[in-house]
Give the backbone structure.
Amino acid sequence: MLFREVDDRSQDGHEELLSVSHITGVTPRSHKENVNMFLAESTKGYKRVAIGDLAVNTMWAWMGALGFSKYNGVVSPSYNVYRLRRAGDVGYYGHVFSNPNFIKEVIRYSTGVWESRLRLYPEAFFEIRLPEPPVSEQRQIVKFLDVQTRKIDRLIDLRRRQMALLRLQRSAAVQKAVTRGLDPGVPVSDSGVPWLGDIPTHWKSLPLKRWVSTRVTDGPHETPELVDEGIDFVSAEALQEGKINFDARRGFIREDLHEAYCKKCRPQRDDIFLVKSGATTGKAAIVETDREFSVWSPLALVRVDQRRMLPRYMFEAIQCQYVLSQIETSWSYGTQPNIAMTAIERLVVAAPPLPEQREIVEFIVAESTKIDTLYVLLSSELCAVPFHFLTQP
């Protein structure tokens, strides 16, 4: 066997308490948030871990919660600690243990009920077969992977920065289009809104309530009973990338309950929903479907008067910084941000006549399509980066 189990217990409980997770590996518990939660009064009797030891979170090993420690400390008595029996490079075995195929073996050798009580016990761990090249070759492999990993990390960082710049580019293009229009030489005048500044003289800057066909409303202020099948019931978490993601629904409600809620708020195509409470207050999405669904109270419905404003124009406008700044100065704090419907109705939105709105929307759609195409390309490259490097000769 390559490893042996170590069961050396703390005599006084003065050692550093270590945590083992599939995300961070083996780290001092003091480096984590909420370090006072779930801590025992003493770590006396906990299992000692030395630098270079393998610590395994027995309960979550099937998720990859194991790793070689860079610290001296102790772990929970329910964890297992292992040490190489003979010379070897722990960096090499660290790469082996992070390999998805190894995790499949961990799952295969674990016992118990799937996920909830799946455990990797020592006798099963010792049965897992591991590759053991000569130590010199182990070190060469680690050196190679370290070099490739640094290259991968640099390229991933570059791609992420490029993707962030694309988002900024789109936001800047939209901000300029919905505050100054497409004609750079058009005469401008003061809008009267500090965050908005000058706008074309022929535009109007009006409270949102002057642009809508119905009063701003929201979903039910009650927690409905969710059922296995029925009508989609969505809340703030379903607003993603400017759309309603029904896969992120809160759940399903009965059809009769949906009809009752629709007496106050029945969503329809081209409606705009704005998050009015919670961590994502100010986030918006436009409805691009005719399917029936209901919304919960954190969402406010904005339905524009299409004789005066295009829904897509309003959607783009209320996501601009000058509107978001108004939202931030209008919300109140309890346990979380919250903006009242009356405050939403007072938000000032600037807009040109309908024909010019159509031109601006067409411009935004065209620019967004180009930027989205580049964004998808960079995303696909980001996913392919490790494969590209590790398959090079």
Remarks:
- The first strand starts at residue 3 and ends at 6.
- Confidence is low (pLDDT under 50) at residues 33-38, 387-391.
- The longest helix spans residues 135-180.
- Residues 258 and 291 are 13 Å apart (CA to CA).
